[in-house]
Amino acid sequence: MALVEVRDLHKIFGPNPRKAIPLIKKGLTKQEILKKTGCTVAINGASFSIEKKETFVVMGLSGSGKSTFIRCLNRLIEPTTGEILIDGKDIMKMDKETLREVRRYKMSMVFQHFGLLPHRNVVNNVEFGLEVGGMTKDERREKAVRAIKLVGLEGFEQSMPSELSGGMQQRVGLARALANDPEILLMDEAFSALDPLIRTQMQDELLDLQTKMHKTIIFITHDLDEALKIGDRILILGPDGRVRQVGTPEEILADPADDYVKKFVQNVDRTRVITAGLIKRRSPTVCVAKDGPEAAMRLMEKHGHSHIFVVNADRVLQGILSIDDAVKLKKEKVRDLSSKINTDVYTTLPETAVADLMATALETRFPIAVIDQDGVFQGIVDRAAIIREVNEGMDDQTLTPTALSDIHDELNEREGNA
Amino acid sequence: MNQIRDIVNIGGIFESIIDWLTENGDWFFDFIALLVEGLLDGVTWVFSFPPALIIIAIFTVLAWKVATKGVALFTLIGFLLILYMGYWQQTMDTLSLVIAAVVFGLLVGIPIGIWASKSDKAWNVIRPILDFMQTLPAFVYLIPAVLLFKLGPIPGVIATLIFSLPPAVRLTNLGIRQVPTEIKEAARAFGATSSQMLVKAELPVALPTIMAGVNQTIMLALSMVVISGMIGAGGLGNVVLKGITQLKIDIGFEGGVAIVILAIFLDRVTQALSDRSGRQS
Question: Which residue of A has its CA nearest to B204?
Answer without folding.
Answer: A119
